[in-house]
Amino acid sequence: MNRTLAMRFRMSPETSSKQKRLFAVRYGPAIVKTAVILTFAVAPTAFCVNGEHWVGTWSTAVHEPEPLAGITNVGFQDQTLRQIVHTSIGGSRVRIRLSTFASSGVAVGAAHIAISNGESTIIPGSDRALTFGGSPTIAIPPGATVLSDGVNLDVPSLGDLAVSIWVVGSSGPATWHSVSMQRSYVSPPGDFTASNVMPVESTRDAWFWLAGVDVISSRHIGAVVTFGDSVTDGTNSLQTLTIDGRITSLFG
Hints:
Blueprint: E1 4-8, H1 16-21, E2 34-41, E3 52-59, E4 79-86, E5 91-99, E6 106-115, E7 128-129, E8 138-140, E9 145-147, E10 151-155, E11 160-167, E12 176-177, E13 184-189, E14 202-204, E15 207-208, E16 210-218, E17 221-228, H2 230-233, H3 247-251
Antiparallel strand pairs: 1-17, 2-17, 3-16, 4-11, 4-13, 5-9, 5-10, 5-16, 6-7, 6-8, 6-11, 12-15, 13-14
């Protein structure tokens, strides 16, 4: 297995182009490379504001709709996706990163984040509506990466968040991470982003468009990105698709 270890810091918007390259995904003849964030303590830096900065608590390497022949998705039609991610560090504010890497654009009619209460449910009172430059909707162009505005939420360390996205119209094949080892939930047509119990029409064992989650944390906290193959994803680890157990999450 070809694996490397790299450090990732989010110091200021000016460094974002460099950070994006850490999430690049490369394919060999038979394996898919993976990136996962781990956190660790670092020395103070001059880029921190008020002793705090944005740090990745979760991330994945998204890839094109068909990375290998026969491995693809058809996208979504006016549906809500509720995607579960496992945090490493906690924080008092949170934001998400969406990407249309190597695919067509997508219209997001609403996006919410909350504390997961298991499967497609969220803890009542934890739901937060997300905005993008102050707008609750966003049309993400092809091959782009966008950040939501930050919202106040007490994000737990080593906990589960539910990120809900309402896809307006037909998305076509979507940017995704096809080996999530984590179940995602798809609604019937409609906006269910704010629902405590989202109705489920189907499930997917993948993440779509969701590339990262950041929290505000102490200037002493940074992150590490691990690169690898399906082992880094947690393939054949002792877990179910609804209970996180991948080894990289244990490192968090």
